[in-house]
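Need tokens for this chain, all 506 residues.
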Amino acid sequence: MTSRTSLSAFAGAPIRSVRIATQSPPGFPGVASALDKLHVRTRDRTVRRQLLFAAGDTVDTLAVAESVRRLRRDRYLRDVELLGVRCGHGVDLVVSTRDDWSVKPKVQVRSSGNSELGLTERNLFGSGRELAMHVRTQQGRVGVGVSLNDPWFLGSRVGAVIGQDTYKDGQEWTATLRLREETVLAPWGAELGGVHSEYEPGVAGDRFQRGAAHLLIRRRLFDDASAVMSVLGGVETEEARLAAAPGAPIVGPSRAARNFVGLSVGAARAAVAYDTLTWLVPNDAIVDVPLAFESEAVVGLGRDVVRGVPMMHVDLWAGKAWIPSRRGLALADVWASGYTSAGTWDAAAFRASLAYYQAAKRGFWSTHLTAERLLNPDPDVRTFVTIDPTARLLPDGRRLAEAALAFTAERDVRLMGLTRSWALDGALFGAVSSRWEAVDPSPEHLDVAAVGVGLRLTPTRVGRATARLDLGVPVLGSAVAKRGIYVGIGLSPWWDDDRHRAGRRD
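Here are the structure tokens for all 506 residues:
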């Protein structure tokens, strides 16, 4: 019996052996076949570390299914399959994986003007470690950076993510150490992380200095057939000294000084029940969809040392996914983050999103409704998180506002496969958005709508973003909106990418 999800027919049977069979990616044709020799095949122990079962155990369908999901999330693997052979009273298992070409270019272009161009090795020497180098533009600055993601730091149960970006006017570094959870049902989990950034463009420019650190410990309370409930506790601190340049496109105060120290408490609910879809990604790739309501909320209780007053830091996400039919997927999510003291919010963002995907001939329909509200955002906030195809119709200084509402509807059609990793889609889209209290207060309310066509560079692997090229025509616009045909280049993240609280770094 083979399976790409679980081995329910063997539930409860003793496991006699577990064999790993790793395969190289399909070879390149012709002269390009010389590149095949550069690929280092995934090591057996790299795959075995991800398994939640071993010889001597009994077949637990939950552990088997979660192991397969974990392997499918590894971006260096193209496919995962399980084979079970019953031998007497036991079962022999074979875990078969097919590698993907692990050296990948990385290109990101955002509506805010920030972009990134880099190269990533996602399976360094077949070990599952990831090394990336990139050139990045951010708020008009150009810098170079490097990052390392080691799931087994120094051979331990601790995963580490370390990165640094260097700019002419400053630098930023991040570091996270996380105790690897062997399963979502693990009784304990822990994470230690920190980030520091400092930019000094000059007397007339922005000046941003920010540092934060946290220690968060997770303790499982109980679980049922659909989800596991945990409590969270720890400590956190953030120090921010921020000043915006005169005339900068901001909607909050031009200066912010904060030094928060507090104890963190919270709760999390994570799904253990999943269903699968095969029509959302080219080549019938399996998409795992959590069926339970999920959430994670952390509240920091402490003081702002700068002002000497009590302060609370809120950071939460909650969401639910549904499969109303075998050809549909619905999503609902809410986010909230910010600092509150004496009834006033600072650096706060509230966001809600509804999305629906419906399978169609050679593609699918998708609709998204998003709302976002900012309260006294820090002066380094220059764009909304929400993806908005109409943003190109507004001048740079009008794209950010205190509140925004956006709706998009799109029909994607599969055109052709380009490579083993990418396909080309065509798209028809319509989008409308409203903004209140924009950077320039006159007018206070901006409405924009557009229709158009586009091309989509769509990954054939689950979890990767889609690059988009839009050619649109405005059909409605406030007086300040641009007229005529416009071209937009952007990136649509995978639907599950941001389904976590803002302060969580994955």
